[in-house]
Design brief:
Layout (H helix, E strand, L loop, with lengths): L5 H4 L1 H10 L5 E2 L4 H10 L6 E3 L12 E3 L4 H14 L13 H15 L5
Parallel strand pairs: 1-2, 2-3
Helix pairs in contact: 4-5
């Protein structure tokens, strides 16, 4: 296993270096911006697991997405709370920009009646 610093090299050059080093599978990049940059400049000759999502369209062949998106997690938790029939609960979030990104999708998803 080799690790390439996309912050130092850039996502595209790091990916090309991994291919030059004969990678058979690539994990990364991590940031949404790096995933988008990679999709717009590269083809994917080996399976590649991006640790974020490419939001603009369906991913190209050999690009798989595993987003670590707290907003999606908040929606999933809220849906589960509603599906389990809970009517009261508490959610703890830090008071910062991340809180707004998580509580915005959390509240309406939690208030929606669950479909079973």
């Amino acid at each position: 296993m080799r690790i390439y610093d996309t912050a130092a090299l850039g996502a595209g050059p790091a990916y090309q270096q991994a291919l030059a080093d004969r990678a058979e599978f690539v994990v990364g990049p991590l940031t949404r911006e790096d995933v988008q940059a990679l999709v717009t400049t590269q083809s994917f000759p080996v399976p590649t697991l991006a640790l974020n999502a490419y939001p603009d369209a369906a991913p190209p062949p050999f690009l798989f997405q595993f987003p670590l998106d707290p907003e999606q997690e908040a929606r999933a938790v809220a849906r589960r709370i509603a599906a389990d029939g809970h009517v009261r609960g508490i959610a703890l979030f830090p008071r910062n920009a991340w809180e707004i990104g998580c509580t915005t999708p959390f509240r309406p998803s939690c208030r929606r009646p669950a479909s079973r």
